[in-house]
């Protein structure tokens, strides 16, 4: 195995508000020599710019930024798991090539938290089959936490569970009995479940200047959310949103 970059930090930086960056994250960023950023193309340049602003505010001069183009993938595949596995493998190859060209301490800034619906840690483990280095994970504030804070609700009932899933799984499995946080939903899957007795708390661009919040009985606000989401996406070229669903009498109050 090659040995060049001796250490890597995988740093959660919160859901979009630069104020959500923790002191632990700042300390880790200040130890890094090189920051690796997987770019999402010009339509999502704002995500790179937020990372750049965080570095400019919290890290002194002398660091490098290495931007890596994100390989394309099919967004509506028949074999979802297979396509995502291939995408992760191609991402890991690009990261390995970038890591191998650097020395010192590296860092990857991860939107939200690296442990929740993010592929960075899986890719880093793939890279470690080719390169020798140690790494540490710094937790960040998740979009689920930010959503609950902005709507001033608790995600679960007293002593009860909360379910976290994706839009694809909501369409396939339906809404269960527990309050459900839905992430990675590009198709407004909340419109495909029975709305009677269900309430929704929705948020887009949480912590960012264009943050938008809507809440209410699902049957009353679903169309508004869908229209607002489409307008926001058309205006910016991309969208990041998340929502909480619960049946009346179950879970949070607010």
UniProtKB/TrEMBL annotation:
Recorded GO MF terms: precorrin-6A synthase (deacetylating) activity
Domain Tetrapyrrole methylase: 8-221
A Gene Ontology biological process term: cobalamin biosynthetic process
UniProt xrefs under InterPro entries: 4pyrrol_Mease, 4pyrrol_Methylase_sf, 4pyrrole_Mease_sub1, 4pyrrole_Mease_sub2, CobF
Pathway: Cofactor biosynthesis; adenosylcobalamin biosynthesis
Keywords: Cobalamin biosynthesis, Methyltransferase, S-adenosyl-L-methionine, Transferase
Name assigned to this protein: Precorrin-6A synthase (Deacetylating)
Origin species: Nocardia puris
